[in-house]
Specification:
With 539 residues, the protein is α/β, with parallel strands linked by helices. The chain has helices at 10-20, 22-26, 28-33, 52-64, 70-76, 95-104, 121-130, 146-155, 172-179, 207-218, 230-238, 254-264, 285-291, 309-314, 339-345, 364-370, 429-444, 462-470, 491-499, 517-530; strands at residues 83-85, 110-112, 136-138, 161-163, 180-181, 186-187, 194-196, 224-226, 276-281, 297-302, 322-327, 333-334, 351-358, 377-383, 415-421, 451-455, 481-483, 506-508, 535-537.
Length: 539
Amino acid sequence: MPRRKEVPVLGSLCLQSLAQHMQSIWVKDYSENYLDKYQFRFVMGPFNDLAGSLVQDLIQLLGESRRLTRAALHLLLLPHLRELSLRPCPGLVSNAIGQLVTLRCKNLSSLDLHGCSRLSTDILVDLAEGLPRLSRLGLAETQANVQVLSAVGSCCRHLQELDVSHCKKVSPRALRHLAYDPLAQSLCCPVLRVLLARGLEPTGDGSMAAALAFLLLALPRLEFLAHGAVPDALRLLHGQQLDSTGDAEGFPSLEELARQRGAALGGSRLTLPLRRVEEVEEPDLAVVHAVCPQAEEASVWLGDGPGPAGSWELLGWGRLARLTLGCTGWQGRVLAEVLPVARSLGPRLQTLALHGFCCQDELSLATLLASCPGLQAFSAELHAPPEADPDGETPAEPPCWDTDLLPHGFPQLQSFSLALASTTGAFPAQYGLALRATLASLLCRAPRLQTLCLLGIPFPLDSVFETVLAAPGPPLLELQELSLAESRVSGQTVWLLLASEGRLRRLDLSHCRDIHRRDYDGFLQAVRKQRLDLDITWE
């Protein structure tokens, strides 16, 4: 059965006690006698001897419970902090708080200011200039602009990860200043690996693609650049469509930067060290792979065009370990088109996500899974073929599902999600037989599975769980989260889960038509009576 509620660890109880009594005890004197009367550079308060990691945990706990106050934040900004996230309390982060962080927290290596839009650009510049040890900096949804990114590029020489997503003032020009200092005529951010720049204001004139191409050439260790125009920039670089003259601000031309990179690579064709690429459309696959041969993770959008052209192009991506494939068209693509990719990349694939594929062959899913023995995470959203006949003859259900349908186990699989969409019609009856046999085999042979989502499955699943939970082992011992939303499952399966061994902590039964209010009340009563650490949702 799911585990009984454990006694909370002492550290967690202490933090909860601190949070509960923060205003009434720990910051009462400072709040009443000093907060608005004095401006202290440093404060010797009750938290100075608390470890930095516990201080951050306390800030997060207070922020999430909406008990964090300005006075508490004053006392928690301590010199020995190594990591600081103010994401839980963006409304409290004023310019005064920003100045305190700059003055007190000189040893920070990680700072997250996500959503702290009250901080002025001048304060953000002071933070970048005053915290040179930063290796991670989150500026998403702030007032970051060209001056801020210029300061980050010039002063944060150890920066490895930067997030400027949804910053309305970050322009193509600002991105160039991040990577190059025109005054010093030198490259910046020499060790930056990850740059998140999603949701920036569109320009519509191609300047963003040119700016991203500049970043890709000027940042020698960049492994991931998140922006929708990255494929355009890669196409620009691959086609050698590079300007040969700098601009009035002193930035080098793309041709000059490419020449420097080419010289470093011995004059060979320009390639980049990107390990992850997003939003790649099917016609750009060859270009992206030519420029980024070391890519290990990719998200690709396939159109409605006939034939598996995009799938065949992926066969040459020899380093790919994490792949997301989506269909942009209304018709979708047939799941069988992914099988050549699975056979070629399967032994190396660790994660595979499929969206919008049509399942015409009932054995396609089983064949696909059989080709990927090393999967750690799998998710698929599939829909029925338009010409499917839901009223066809229903095959007889076997008394016990054969768990040997898949030829091997999945020793690394930790997350599995399958959603069946009925937007194009109902799934044929014979598909249900193959699907349930596949699920029974998979669940019996995935000993490390922790998260399982079976969403919108229109076929009865009780016999599948009955087979799995009765198998030797037993299976699902590591399962912690199970979602069966909108699927055909009855109270019988829930009672089997409650009686089985395992670590189940969350069970989602939302919109399960075979689960009724009396069933749900009985589940909750059993959980309370046995003091199980299990959260069940139903509606």
